[in-house]
């Protein structure tokens, strides 16, 4: 008689969350985006904040999305199919071309059109460098997401560059700012795409999104 395996403990299970993803396509203009029948989660943030690295970390692949030391690496909208009932979309970074304040709001036309016209957008993963969190761009995004009633996962990335106390301080400051919006659709995590800090919690939140959307 074969011995039955004991069920995995909840804790063990929680430590093994993963997202399977594969590249679908790139789009250099809004009309080139894939059909919009699948919900989408967009990775947004300043250039060099680590959007592509974060996406790679969450799907457990080193180089699915392109990463570079040179800001401005991601210049197209890159779409990835995955197994959480939504596509992931890696967007070009904001703030690359030494943009003026006005441009900061307008950003680049492609991203602007995507964010404002894409009907199947359900959530934003806002990737910000934890050392420079809540700059005007992040604040604009928070308000925008709030107006649109989207889900927001705010990742305080590069937490590996901060000391323990600095991490606690930035988390507290950001939590206070998001709490003032009074939304139950915003989550904030200390994160490191490089080390994997926060990745399990982020995956759990993303996996839960579709369920929450149907509530
Ligand atoms: N120390 C550290 N470095 C990171 C982390 N995440 C990303 N980086 C580095 O930051 C740089 C930019 O990373 P990308 O993932 O290309 O950033 P991006 O936001 O996609 O950049 P654009 O596509 O130009 O907008 C690379 O050199 C990464 O190795 C992190 O958690 N910790
Ligand atoms: Mg990128």
Topology (elements, then pairings):
Blueprint: H1 10-14, E1 21-27, E2 40-45, H2 51-59, E3 77-82, E4 87-90, H3 101-106, H4 109-117, E5 121-129, H5 136-148, E6 151-157, H6 164-179, E7 186-190, H7 199-214
Parallel strand pairs: 2-4, 2-5, 5-6, 6-7
Antiparallel strand pairs: 1-3, 3-4
Bound molecules: guanosine-5'-triphosphate and magnesium ion.
Guanosine-5'-triphosphate is lined by residues 45, 47-53, 67-69, 71-74, 92-93, 157-158, 160-161, 192-194.
Please, could you describe this protein's structure?
This protein is α/β, with parallel strands linked by helices and 215 residues long. The protein has a single domain (19-214), classed as Rossmann fold. It is 34% helix and 20% strand. The protein is built from 7 helices and 7 strands; from the N terminus they run H-E-E-H-E-E-H-H-E-H-E-H-E-H. It has helices at 10-14, 51-59, 101-106, 109-117, 136-148, 164-179, 199-214, and strands spanning 21-27, 40-45, 77-82, 87-90, 121-129, 151-157, 186-190. Strands 1-3-4-2-5-6-7 form a 7-stranded mixed β-sheet, with helices on both faces. The radius of gyration is 17 Å and the shape is globular. 33% of the residues are buried. Mean pLDDT is 86; it is low at 1-13. The structure holds guanosine-5'-triphosphate and magnesium ion.
